[in-house]
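Blackboard transcription, Thursday session:
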Amino acid sequence: MYEGVVQDLIDELGRLPGVGPKSAQRIAFHILQAEPADVRRLTHVLAEVKDKVRFCAVCGNVAQEERCRVCADPRRDPAVICVVEESKDVVAIERTREFRGTYHVLGGAISPIDGVGPDDLRIRELLARLADGSVTELILATDPNLEGEATATYLARLVSAMGLKVTRLASGLPVGGDLEYADEVTLGRAFEGRRTLDV
Amino acid sequence: MYEGVVQDLIDELGRLPGVGPKSAQRIAFHILQAEPADVRRLTHVLAEVKDKVRFCAVCGNVAQEERCRVCADPRRDPAVICVVEESKDVVAIERTREFRGTYHVLGGAISPIDGVGPDDLRIRELLARLADGSVTELILATDPNLEGEATATYLARLVSAMGLKVTRLASGLPVGGDLEYADEVTLGRAFEGRRTLDV
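(Written on the board underneath:)
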């Protein structure tokens, strides 16, 4: 509907995840009216990110050096590995400041419906990290959904003979949430995992 | 939270309209994993749009030449001008295939609260187009909200002595909508504007 290059921009923006045709149009007009310097900054950083960012040779997290910030930090405990699906999950866990071990980013979860099998994930690399027996605990922090649970179960079975502690993040009611709005599966998990209060 | 350039990209994306921190993160990771050629196409079109797109010398619509496609089309009637706020509105009206006149893009609407007065809009350019008396009808197609109505009223008064037909798009119930879900102002307008059915 738009003239040449404006329509091209709307089309390209519309290919981004979560950007529908209306948002693509709004962003395109924002860019048309924006300062050229602002747009140059965006195009520059887009190019740079493809140029500079790679994936950590150890854990698969996004990194600017050979190793990511976590793996390069000598204060982090390499004997505890927290397995997550994506780099986004690393950031979410880092934000809690609760965890002082290292990560392993799988690059997704097992999902037969999407054609993702164990071989498509960084599981071989995980087994290589476990091979020398120095790792004591593996925390399976894949998403609490069907694919994440399946992946956690698969991994737990795979390493069961290695004699390390394998844990899974607790499921339960979200803090600050309202019990009556919790879905039944979450509420069921919260019951299952109930703990004795020491008073 | 992210390493250098990844965070830069998330920040730049987050400056786009309608892109919150979560979407910015999702888009950034999409770009990290995308084919370099796809990202090059996006950066290319971003640069090109700033380079090539200008605004029509006649109506202010986005254009790739000195005149936009509508103003350059000899089949369009220059005696009828439809006044809209933005280029997006031109596209919306073009989609109806109902209108064969030309446009005038104001670049916004009068909004004292946002500090937008008549001098900030392309009103002087509109008056210049009306000066030679060849225009017979001015259709005020600004948005049916407070700012759009105020702008339409302002323009109608401004040109009232010029002896041309000034019209406003009809307000009423959206086609395919449900009467019970219409807000009272829309429903009120629909009553006001009711027409005799010829049966």
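Lecturer's comment: The helical segments of chain B are 4-14, 21-33, 36-52, 69-72, 87-96, 123-130, 146-158, 184-192.
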